Amino acid sequence: MIVKNITDVLEEWVPLSYAEDFDNVGLLVGDAGMKLTGVLVTLDTLENVVDEAIAKNCNLIVSFHPIIFGGLKKLTGSTYVERSVIKAIKNNIAIYSMHTALDNAKDGVNAKICEILCIRNTKILIPQKATIKKLTTYVPREESEKLKEALFSAGAGNIGNYSNCSFSVVGTGSFMAGEDANPTKGIIGRTHFEKEAQINITFPASNEGKVLKALFKNHPYEEVAYEIQTLDNTNQNIGMGMIGELERGMEETDFLEYLKDKMDLSCIRHSRLLGKKIRKVAVLGGSGAFAINAARASNADVFITSDLKYHQFYLAEDQFVIADIGHYESEQFTKNLLVDFLTEKFPNFALSLSESITNPIKYF
Q: Which positions bind a divalent metal cation (predicted)?
């Protein structure tokens, strides 16, 4: 098995196109064709993590956070980033990161938090835009069903909880084949009229390659007429944060105790308590100040996130509780999510959950 076997499966589950534009995801260090000896899963790729990979004979580190985030202009070992990268290169260890691609996945970081907290009836808090595309193509009417089935199999036609969705209109198409053409319909040099179906079908942007491959393979025409548009529709299966409900309401202090216990927290920074029960819970792992307004608009009773500044707690506006549980703490179970997924896909391969402590924040 090689590195690419692992990364292909991860990207089939969570396409890198889900990642935010500012992010740096994918294979950051190493050769995709390198033969694998073992995989170590971690939140951060620090020097001690690379040392752990060496000790465990793992030459691929699957890391949630990217060790290379900004540009690297030199590799002299003067920073923790440079030292980690140098050590990985010296020891032929590849590094792969998922970061905000996994943040935006429906069953990613925030779904794991909801699982830990037993939050049910979940949905995406901030659905992502520009992730849905629409294909329009024209095909002889009698062959339209065959083409649609091929497009469905390639991942097109899924809308929310529905699949095999499309819309067709029957009309008359015209074309004239040139001297160098090899037409399946009509005669060279004569205008041909054909009863055609116009097929309209949506698909996730991440599936565009597969959909086009299916289109060209299964379309009967030598030249395929088609259009692809990027839609402004939000995608309810991709986006930041999640919101859902507890099985029953809890007093605010009881919920905070529950939160500390479930997420193994030393402390919680929170806005003013309001004397209301907590039932509807919004979560966003990592730095989530940008989602405060979305949590309020969703009528959350509490919003759990991290990295909040002093004035951002005022944004609760005495309408709900904002709880900052710490960046590392909010994402700590992500590596368990990754290990569980890879173990299911590769049950007989050497997969290790990192034991290294990478939280840079200590509490006194």
A: 65, 103, 327, 331
